[in-house]
Amino acid sequence: MLGNHLGLDMQQGTHLNVAFGKQRKVSDSTEFKQLTKQDAKNELAKELEKILNTAPSTVEKQRTAEEFRGFQRLFSQFLQGTSSTVQWDKIEPLPEGAVISYSRLSEPEPRRIREMLSKLVVVKLNGGLGTTMGCTGPKSLIPVRNELTFLDLTVQQIEHLNKTYDADVPLVLMNSFNTDEETHKVLPKYRGLRIKIYTFNQSRYPRLNKESLLPIGTTLKNPDPEAWYPPGHGDFYESFFNSGLLEMFISTGREYCFVSNIDNLGA
After folding, report:
1. Range name among 133-137, 216-220, 260-264 with the lowest pLDDT average
2. How much is the pLDDT for 87?
3. Cβ-count burial of 205 within 10 angstroms (0-12 exposed, 13-18 middle, 19+ buried)?
4. Domain interval for residue 56
5. What pTM did the predictor assign?
6. Smallest Cα–Cα separation from 138: which of 238, 241, 230, 240?
């Protein structure tokens, strides 16, 4: 009888005893959370592998694999609940005399300035769109003064520096998948100027479904831009390293990076 196979006591209608194979100890809440987190990581890894297999080229597959490794580290931090929020109550003012007024600085000799500039790389973060300003396309291409864009003015600033001190300070643009194509369309107009411009892309991370914690996008072939996002300025270090530009600049004697937003013309 079915009742006998399930271990049901059919004679004592008020008593139910069910045994399905081996009994398993019920996990406490901590163990349960750890198991679900590990399951989420495993399922995400499977889905990312499927997406990688849709890459149209070996080069894109390798680049995306590097980005996915960074995303998985970020996902693990999310699952663990770790936060990089600044602890403002631990922030203290600088000691007296730590900040020197610009007017008190001595003027270095032009030769010394040229030597210092030979070690410098200027990096502009160019991954943002102009949507908050009511515009479409890269923020760097918005006209802001005399029909000149943020990018135009940035190029002028660095070219002036190079001409004044007979220097060769390069400009590096960190683009995103949202801005890279449009930015490259305008770069040829700067070829006749005294400035070398390099570009690299920050990472492209997949957006996740809130409920399943799995990627919304499923392919790298003509991917839907809404299924991906650029992870922000903190991604600069890893993306700059992966681009190969860091190694190249170090090999040519560069030691310092000056990093700022493309729309920060005062920096």
Report:
1. 133-137
2. 84
3. buried
4. 30-80
5. 0.77
6. 230
